[in-house]
Amino acid sequence: MNSHKFPEDFLWGGATAANQYEGGYREGGKGLNTSDVLTNGSHTVARRITWRNPDTGETGSTGMGFGAQMEVPEGAVLDVIDGEYYPSHVATDFYHHYKEDIALFAEQGFKCFRLSINWARIFPNGDDERPNQVGIDFYHSVFDECLKYGIEPLVTISHYETPLGLTNKYGGWLDRKVVDFYLNLCRVLFTEYRDKVKYWMTFNEINIMGMAPYMGGGLIKSDEQSKAQAAHHQFVASAKAVQLARELSPNAKVGMMVAYGVTYGETCNPADQLMVMEGSHWAHFYTDVQCRGKYPNYKLKEYERNGIDLQMEKDDLEILANGTVAFIGFSYYSTHVASAVKAAEQGGNFMAGVKNPYLEANAWGWQIDPTGLRIALNTLWERYELPLWIVENGLGFEDVLEEDGSIHDDYRIAYMKGHIESMADAINLDGVNLIGYTPWGCIDLVSAGTGEMRKRYGMIYVDRDDSGQGSLERRRKDSFYWYQKVIQSNGTELD
Question: Can you give the pTM of this predicted structure?
């Protein structure tokens, strides 16, 4: 019989990101970031990035460069322009509701709360000589509010919000100078919050650089050479941040965070299984570098075949070796199927594959596979033997607000229940060291991929729609009370 026993110190909580949740985009001295020039979209209409030519006054927009180069005219800069709606500007307004929201998290029983720092709130242009004290004070207030309720902050240092100044002036993470600007941020964070934050992650879903380099690193260029070079700069920055934390905040634990999923071969055709192997290489490249401290041979050979020439400084490899992470945080949403004969379709979280006939999906095509989570946990644990933390897990649904103000989201409860059961199996049957679970969008927020509000993940409903209308009132969904019981029982009560 399977046991649902979890460790006594297991960290139950929820996850958010500043660019999708915080709002207050020009308040308190905050500068613009790459998310602030992303328009709204839908699951049929792509989000766009807006630009302005300061010399001619011309304005326009371009796509985010998924598999294609972004089209930004020479002389133009990315900027906010009139007549467009930018969901991140208000999002669901944590900036003004943080005390109310954290009180709701405490009511649920959260042991931890994953959030991110809005880099441009600390360094408005990214390369400023001095940090913005108002921004520093804001996060002090947020962390104090968490600790008041005994909630441990889990903080992502950079989550899809490179300061826009670094993109317009330097081309984002393609420029080596951005490593030092990032370390300036880390130095402030590790010094200011050393007594308040124990757990850090250096980058959100660092492997998204390979698919969406604008989101992952503020890149306008999306060719393979640029993505590889920018990824290298983030590897070096992460490793240096790990070493900096050891110096400035020795009690802190610094981990990495990756978008992770399992790939199945559609058939026993060896060609399908070869694609699975190649998919494994893609899935583990970033974790191999950050956990093992070196580039894997399969990636070096790929770079060699494709003519990619990484520019490194003489001690970069030593830095990577000495800056390995303390734990692995990962997002898990769905699994994927590789076929050598069928064309891949867009799947969940920027991933692609063919449809799995054994799984159900939501309206956005994200397939539901709790068993895949157990496989993912075992794969990561066997490969690295580092503590694991599921820092994102969830599925977007279009919730219905009933006339009496209730929201009945049995589908979300069923999704979470299946995944928590797989977590328990991985711990109790397989011996995996899983330390925490923070389901994505514990409160409703803006979708990163589509810019929608109707694609809701939260256990707390926020009155806000796709056009930015609504009171921002918070309401508890049925899943709120269900997850409250899960935490109170430490995972033993799932019905």
Answer: 0.96
